[in-house]
Amino acid sequence: MGNHTPASFQALTSTALARMVEEAAQRIQPFVTETPLEPVTPLVASSGTSLLIKLENLQQTGSFKLRGASNKILSLSADQAARGVIAASNGNHGLGVAAAARRAGIAAEVYVSSQVSPAKSHRIEEYGARVHRAGDDPLDAELAARAAAEQQGKVFVSPYNDPEVMAGQGTIGVELLRYKQQIDAIFVAVGGGGLIGGIGAYIKHASPQTQIVGCWPKNSPVLYESMQAGRIIEVPEKPTLSESTAGGLEPGSVTLEICRKVIDRSVMVSEDEILDAMQKVRNATGSLVEGAAGVAVAAFLKHASDYAGKTVVVIICGGNLSPAVRQRLQQV
After folding, report:
1. Residues of the chain with confidence (pLDDT) below 70
2. Residue 226 contacts by C-beta under 8 Å, 6 or more apart in sequence?
3. Angle between the 14-28 and 194-206 helix axes, to the nearest 10 degrees?
4. Taking the CA atoms of the chain, what radius of gyration do you get in angstroms?
5. What is the CB neighbour count within 10 angstroms for residue 179?
6. How much is the pTM?
7. Could you tell me the strand order of the sheet in which 37-39 lies?
8. What is the pLDDT of residue 21?
9. Beta-carbon count within 10 A of 126 CB
């Protein structure tokens, strides 16, 4: 497959990324929603933990992905913007790129794999992006999209393997510390590592004592296993409710080293634990959250006793449930 990460990305440090997050917060502020940070006491009645959830499911397009897409697109030169952009996504990133591109008045194409629900691909098209189908796995779509971008001389907007995208996702960390200066731990679901890498880089710079907890579905631990190996490896995957974190990693992804530096603790959760967490959030807040958000909640619930008396934030990364996942949730 080769190494698809530009050489300029590979020297990225968490300190440099933290500075980029601060710049991104200024750049995208007019274009994204500053989402609420709300207490959820029903989930921690016995532990005395102050549990707060960051509601990125209330972000425009229904997930945090709009932040990174907006920062990347707002960072383009006039010439790059005029050519348009190409992205790859299993849903949320595609929505974010399509929405950010429409707002900026530039053309966008989004490559999706056969795993993407028709409802999500239709929503991407509703934002004005052109959808292409490529392969049976999100990584297949990603590699096809990057190849098309190189061939056509267009900017490829990676869902995670791009410092500007990571910096945009990291703006969640800026908002967290604006609301709450003392945070003991932050739980974040991990797919490609863009979200936790961006948040973690900023938080380690601004609040080094805060623990960053990476949360994975047992059925899709690709970045975790790659971190253990010290290089990106292929890991067999099983179906997971956490659809938006599923899929392999692009060779040479810039997220690997950043995540190795900023993640303090890793937690794996089962499919039953994810579904139970989604149900608990629905019962406590009335909100339907997607499987990836359920991963972060489940990871906290699994180790809640470790955080008795502490202030913990769980990132509710999105609320775009596929029809299949919505049906599973309605059955419990």
Report:
1. 1-10, 46
2. 232, 233, 235, 249, 256
3. 100
4. 18
5. 14
6. 0.94
7. 37-39, 50-55, 311-316, 185-189, 211-217, 265-269
8. 98
9. 12
